[in-house]
Every structure is written in C-alpha cells, then in structure tokens.
Amino acid sequence: MSSMVKLSVNVNKIATLRNSRGGNHPNLTDLSQKILSYGAHGLTIHPREDQRHIRTEDIAAVKEVIDNWNAKTSNRCEFNIEGEASTRFLDLVLQHMPDQATLVPVSPGEITSDHGFQFPKDNEVLAPIISKIKEAGIRVALFIEAGASGLKLAKDMGADRIELYTGPFAEIYDKDPIKAKAIYTRYEYTAQEAIKVGLVVNAGHDLDHENLKLFHKLPGLKEVSIGHRLVSTALEWGFEKTIQEYLKVLS
Question: How much is the pLDDT for 110?
C-alpha cells in the first residue's frame, strides 16, 4: 500500500449550490477539473433519485473530466459513484463504468447518509447488485459503521472494500478531540477485522483537515471520500489551499 492515503473529493455540494439558483454557476465540470489539478486523487458523486445535487446528466460530464485528465497525465485519478443497492443505481453504474461503486443504504427523506449496511441482514438485497457490478470489472465498496460484524460475509459476496461511516467520530472530535480517541479505537478494530478477511479500507463523512490528523493513522486506510467539509473550508480558503492542506495531513 502507498504511504499516501488517497483523497477523493465529493463534488455533490458544488452541484447543490448550482441547483439552488438554476443555471450553471458554479460550473461543476470546471471546478472538478481544477480539483484534480490541485492534487486530488479522484472525484466522488452520489446521484440520488431526487436529483437534489448531482443530476443524471452530470454523471457523464464528471466521467469525461476524469477520462480527459487520465488521457493527458500519468497521475491517474479515479471515478467513484455512490448510491443505493437498487436496479436504478446499478443501471447508472453499468452505463458510466466508474473505477469504484460504493453502495450506501438510503432511507427515504434522509438529509445525508447516516448508517451503514449490516450483514447478513442486507445480504439478500446486496448480493445480486454486487455480482453484476463485479461482472463488469468495477470495484465495489460497502458503506458500514464502526463495530459492524459479519465482514467475511461482505467479502464472500464479492465486495472489495468497506467505507467506514465516520460521522459519529467527526461529531465527537468537534466537541472533544481527546474523547474522540475512544471512539477511534472502534474504527481501528473494524479496520483490522476488515483487513483480516481481505477487505481494503476506505472512509468518509465529515472528515476534515483537523480530525484527519488522528483518523489518517487508521490501519490499512486506502482512501477518504470528502465533500461537505472540504467544500465548506474552501469557501474560506479556496479549493487549492484546502486540498493542499488535506493532502498534507494525509501524507
């Protein structure tokens, strides 16, 4: 494994800002290109059914940004699409062929993802979707919570990676970074259990340049996917400085 944890920037919030006014400001593809040029290792999108941020037509546009980048540089970047385990999402994945599909449980009306899959409870819905994505040669990650059990079942279904839901860790870190070390040990244990069964570890949700000072030390951590907090910080610092700061912490 590279010593550098990869940073995939989730550009949903750029689309949210654009959609709030209509038109094409801010321009999603222009900013996505800049984000890659500032050193990010990939782009993440979560095209929800309600189209509230990334729209269906944005998927091909973001993929084109990645493809164009990879055609002109040896610094290969990856395209990660997140979404629910459904035929709707499966169709999008098979149409646009990302490097990675991250399956995330979605509850009706949720503001953002707030829980992970459970095994074997969710196996029935996950297994056929994972199978079809894998047949297409696309890497699969499953969104889970710290302390989740049954990780071997995830591996047996064909998952390549887990993505640890880090919202609870970030919430505690904001209030008390020292107390956050206690919940961090749960993530550490889960990561170690994932590694034992042959799963690679990703993480995401409310990670930032402060809490990553602790979290980037997680055993086997390969990639973090960060959107809301990175974009929030960029409002103050600009994208270039923000991404450089995140990369400095991750290295």
Answer: 54
